[in-house]
Amino acid sequence: MNRIKMREMDDNQKGVISAIKVAGELGRRIRDMGLIPGTEIKIKGRAPLYDPIVLQVKKYILALRNSEAEHIMVDVDEQ
Amino acid sequence: MNNNSTGKMQMQADKQIALAGNPNSGKTTLFNELTGSRQHVGNYPGITVEKKQGTCIQDGYKINIVDLPGIYSLSAYSIEEVVARDFLINEKPNAVIDIVDASNLERNLYLTIQFLELGIPLCIALNMMDEAETRGMRIDEKRLSRILGVAVIPTVARSAKGKDQLMAAVMEMMSHNKEYTPLEISYGSDVDSALLTMIKEIITADFLTERYAARWTALKYLENDAQMIAAGQEKNPVLSARLLKIREKLARHLKDTLDTYPEAMIADSRYGYINAILKQGVVQYSHDENKLYLSDKIDKFVIHRFSGPLIMTAVLVGLYQFTFAYSEAPIKWIEAFFEWVHAMAASALPPGLLQSLVVSGIIDGVGGVLGFVPLIMFMFLGISILEDSGYIARVAFMLDRVFRMFGLHGNSVMPYIVSGGIAGGCAVPGVMAARTLKSQKERLATLLTVPFMNCGAKLPVFAMLISAFFVNHKAQIMFAITAISWAMALLAAKFLRLTVIKGESTPFVMELPPYRLPTVKGLFIHTWERTWQYIKKAGTVILGISILVWAMMTFPQLPEEKELMFAQEQLAMHSAYPAAVANELSIKIDQKKLSSAAQALKKKLSHIEGKRAEAALRHSLAGRFGIAIEGISKWAGFDWRTNIALVGGFAAKEVIVSTLGIAYSLADIDTEAFDSLSETLAHSPNWNPLAAFSLMLFVLFYAPCFITVVTIARESGSWKWGFFSMVFNTIIAFMISVVVFQAGSFLGIGIRP
After folding, report:
1. Distance (Å, rounded) from C-alpha B466 to C-alpha B200?
2. Residue B589 lies in a domain
3. What is the ipTM of this complex?
4. What is the pLDDT along chain A (79 residues), one digit of tens a residue?
5. For residues A41 and A18, what is the distance between their CA atoms, to the nearest angstrom?
6. Spatial contact of B505 and B478, defined as CB atoms under 8 Å apart
7. Which of B106, B107, B436 to mutate to test the interface with A (most CBs of A within 10 A)?
8. Which residues does chain B have within 8 Å of residue A20's beta carbon, measured at their own beta carbons?
9. Among all residues of chain A, which has the CA nearest to that of B439?
C-alpha cells in the first residue's frame, strides 16, 4: 500500500480515497460529489491539455482539476 | 359536519408539488411527462435561476408542479442549491418528489438524506430503473421504502413508466395531514454533543425557529453555511457568535484528534448512514461492476486527447451547417409573407403619416425580426441536442484549461455558448447563465464579456451583409465571425481579470453525465421555450423600439417651403411631358406596359421623390445625429445611414437591419426594383466588402443592447458595470473597426475597383 496524491496517479490506475485534506467550500464540494474516504476510484484519463482529470467513482464519471486533486489522498497498490 | 366541509374545501384548493433531485437524474423529463405543454418558464423573484412551473390534473384536482434546479446537496454551494433550499423551506410545498437516479443510488441518496433531515413531505421516484437493470443492479424498492419511511415508486421517466403510480402515491400522501419530523442521524459523539448544546441554546432564545427547525440551524452552523450564518448574524448577533464559538471549539478538537473538519464528519456520517441502508439487502449486483458501458466507449473517442478537440470542432461547424441549411426555406416563406402584408397595407391605407407608421414602422420592423425565427429555432434545436445528450459537459471539461488561462472557469462555457458562442444565442440569458458560477470575480468577468459573442440578434445583420457581399463564403464568414468573437471575449476577460477584477479561481469538480439519447418531447419543449422568448421580445420591445426609431427618423418633418419646392419640381417635370403620358402613369400600374416616355417620366419623378425622402431623413432627429458623427465614423467606413442604424441597434441588435431597411426604403429611389435590403446595399456605391466587414466587427463588439445592459447591472449588483460595458465595448469596437477599415483601404483589400 502506498499513499499518494490523486494528481500523481497514472491513467487507468485504481485506488481508495484515504483523506480529503481541505476544508471550506472546495472540501464540501468534493464530498458532495461523493468523494469521501473509503471510496474506490479509477483514473480514466486527462483532458487534451492534461488538466482536468477524469475519474470513475462507483457508476459515475467526475472531472476535477489537478489543483483540486492535489488535496485528495489515495491509497494505491505498489507498482 | 362543518369541519368536514372546510377540510374538503381545502382539498379542492390548489396543491403545490416540487420536483427535486440531482442534475441528470431525469427530473426535467419527468416534469415534461407530468405537465405536458401546460408549463411556463419564469424566474425566481429577484434572481435569475429559471423557475419552471406547470400544472397537471389529478383525480379532479389542479396541481401546480415546480421543477427545482438540479442539485447535489443542500449546502448553499451554488445559487441553485440556495434557490432549491429556500423554496422548500419558505414555500412549503404540499409534497416533494425526490427524483433519484437508481443507477447512481448512493450519491443520489446523499441529497435524499438531507431532504429527510429537513423534515419535508417526501416521496421518492426511483428513476432510470431500466438503466440500473442493464448495469446489473437489482433494487428492492419496498425494502428501501420501509427503511427510509417514505414511498418509493420505480419509474422510467423517458417512457412515462410509473408516472400514474407516482402521482397516486403523492395524492395519497397529501390526503393525510401528517406532521413530518426531521430525520436525526448520528454524526459521531463529538459532533452530536456540540449539536445538542447548540440546539438547547437555539430553542431557549427562539432563534430563527419561525423558519427552521433548531437541529437544522445548528447543523448548518456546524457546516459553516454562509447563508445561514448571515441570517443568524442579523437576527441575533450575540447568540450567533456563541454558536460559532461552539463550532470553532469542535473544529479545533476534531483537527487535533482526528485530523478532520466538522463538515467532513457530517458528510461522512451521511454516507455511512446510506451505506448501512444499502447493505440491508436494498441493492444486489448480478454481474461485473467494472464492465465498460456505452458511455465509456463513446468517451474513449469523444474526450480523447487528439480526437476529442477534432470531434468538438466538427460538432460546432456541423451545427452551423445544420442551422443555415435547414432554416433557409422557412426564412424565405416568412419574408414573402411580410412582403405581401407590406403591399396589402400600403394599398389599403392612404399615403401619409399613418401609412408610413404602419408599413415602415410596424410591418417592416416586426417582419425583419420574425424572418429570423426559423434560424433561431434550428440553432436552439441543435444546442438542445448537445445539452440533452450530455455533450456540453464534455466541452466544459475539454475547455477548462483554456478558460482558466483567461481567468475564467470551465463553466463559463455555458454563458458563452448561450450568448452565442455557438452562433445564435442571446446575451440576456447568457448573462443570467453566469449565475451558475460561484466566484464573484469569474462570474463578473464572464458576464461582462459574454456580450461580445455572436448572439442571435446580430445574426440577421451578419446574414444580411453576408448575402450582400460574401454570398459565396456564407458558412466560412459566419464561422470566422464566431471564432473572432471568442478570441475577443477571452482576451477581454483576461484583461479584466488582470486589471479591474483581480483574484483567485474557484472549484471546478463536476459530473460528466452519461450520454443519453435526447427525447423528442424534451427537445421540442426546450427549443420552443427559447424561440418563444425571442418572439415575445420581438413582439413587445422591438415593436416599441421600431416605432420610436420611425418617429426619430420622421420628426421633425421638412419645413413647408422645402416640401413645396419638391412638389413644384415634380409638377414642372409633369408639364414637360404631354398630358397623355402623365395620364398613362396614373392609370397603368404594370410598369412593363408603360410607353418609353412614361417610363422616363416615372424614373425622373421617383428620383425627385428620393431626393425629398433623403432630405427629410437628413432633417430628422436621427439624421442630424448620424450626420453629426459622420466625421468620426467615416474612419471606420460608416456613413450617416449606418450611424442611425447603429444607434437603433443599442435598443436591440436586430433593429439595425430594420432601421437600415427603413432608412433605405424612405430615402432610396430604387427600392421598388429590389426585393431586399441586402440587394440594395450590394448595389449601393457607398458600400463595399471592406466597409461591410468593418461594420460586422463593430456590430459584434460595440455596446450591448439596453436589455443586456440592464441585466448586467442587475446581475453584477451595480449600474457601474452596466455603464462600464457600454463604454468599454464601444471603444474596443471602434478601435478594431478603424484599424481594419484603414488597413484594408491602404492595402486595397475588399474595395471595389
Report:
1. 71
2. no
3. 0.95
4. 899 999 999 999 999 999 999 988 889 999 999 999 999 999 999 999 998 999 999 889 999 999 999 999 999 986 5
5. 11
6. no
7. B107
8. 264
9. A25
